[in-house]
Amino acid sequence: MKTMFDITATQSGVLLALLVSGHVLADFLFQPQALVEKKNHGWWLAVHALVVTLTQAAVVLPLVSTRALPLLLAIGVSHAAIDAAKIRLERQRRNKLTTFTLDQAAHIAVVGVVWLAWLRIGPETLRFLPPTSKVASFARVAVIAAAYALNITGGATVVAALLERYNLPATSGAGAATTDEASRGRVIGVLERILVLTLVLLQEWGAIGLVVAAKSIARFKDLEDRSFCEYYLIGTLASMLMATLTGILVSALI
Predict the structure, then answer these.
(1) 201 pLDDT more than 90
(2) What are phi and psi of 60, to 5 degrees?
(3) Which sign does the torsion angle of CA 44, 50, 53, 54 carry?
(4) How far apart are CA 226 and CA 97, in angstroms?
(5) pTM of the model as a whole
(6) Helix (H, G, I), strand (E, B) or coil at 5
(7) Cα 248 to Cα 245: distance, rounded to the nearest angstrom
(8) From CA 184, how far away is CA 208, in angstroms rounded?
(9) Which of 62, 111, 188, 198 is deepest in the core (most CB within 10 A)?
(10) How many helices (H) and strands (E) does the chain have?
């Protein structure tokens, strides 16, 4: 499929792609659940901020110079401040989907500000290499890797928060889902998003229906329970929508 435009065709676009990819990789791929649970303590929040800073430094390395170090540090410090605000909101029992959305919007806004500031500093900070160089290819790989990281970890967070908002049961009948059932459900969701994202990137739209069919056949009898059916539909559609939109966005940008 011919893309609408290629963000990696210019050095400013490459920089933006790398900064956004660095955020996604640091906040999802390099932030395990154990770290998420420990971030209530200032020390672990500082560890996460350090991981964010180092990830961004590694991702933008082809375009970085020492003059950009304050900007990278600004991303890490602001990331910790935003996460601290999110933790306070969650303690007030705010909806997790809302806090997640606000948190990510704030992080992306900071990345945008840093990007504009970086460009304003000038060519001394950016190593302006030809758009056809390996840097553009590196940026494309980073964007694709970030898309998968977002769907693997972030997708599970979004779907879980959405289902929690509507307080729907994870199993048919009156019983609640066991730990093993919930774990298997998360794995199925991750595999579903990986498959759908891959199929969208390959432009194999017809094959996406097979993913839905396979999942529905396995749950055919359980779907007779209306509450579980609603749980299944909301979770599946939200999961597939996230993977599909991510795939469309990546295809359009690179």
Answers:
(1) yes
(2) -95, 10
(3) negative
(4) 24
(5) 0.81
(6) coil
(7) 5
(8) 21
(9) 111
(10) 10, 0
